[in-house]
Amino acid sequence: MNGWQKLWVTSLGISVLWGTPILVQSQKVIAQTEQNIKQQADQLLQQGIQQYYVSDFRGALTFWEKSLELYRQIGDRQGEANSLGNLGIAYRSLGEYQRAIAFHQQSLDIEKEIGNRQGEAASLGSLGSVYDSLGEYQRAI
């Protein structure tokens, strides 16, 4: 029995012999925890966007790195792709083109995996912008 189950057993007054109610309550706690983590990740993503718009690219990176970590923790692939794409944009703004390419490529891979064609297009456009910044025009095209 893990710590969450003990918490539920204590707070609900359910006997340890009743395995099913404990399991059901544990699953509810996990679902609520994942929801809370997603909300936190979404807020961090938005805070990063705010920092980016005031040209605080390093600040934006901090928020987006944290959001990426949380999205990965809960297995939110779209959130992960969004964070990766934003990280790529910030690194391009900082002139760190190779890092930008790496993040955009990861975002593109996830967008393809989950079948998000608009996300694929956005990632490809971002990659093109980075290659344009590098003067690699054929590759940008």
What low-confidence regions span 5 or more consecutive residues with pLDDT below 50?
Answer: 1-19
Using the CA coordinates, give the radius of gyration: 20 Å
- N/C terminus separation: 57 Å
Please outline the major beta sheet.
none
Would you report the number of β strands? 0
- Gross morphology is flat
Give the strand content: under 5%
Question: Which structural class do the helices and strands define?
Answer: mainly alpha
Mean pLDDT: 86
Helix content: over 70%
Please write the string of helix (H) and strand (E) elements: HHHHHHH
The number of helical elements comes to 7
Describe it.
The chain has 141 residues and is mainly α. It has helices at 3-12, 19-53, 57-74, 77-93, 97-114, 117-133, 137-140. Helix 3 runs antiparallel to helix 4, helix 4 runs parallel beside helix 6 and helix 5 packs antiparallel against helix 6. The protein is flat, with a radius of gyration of 20 Å. Mean pLDDT is 86; it is low at 1-19.
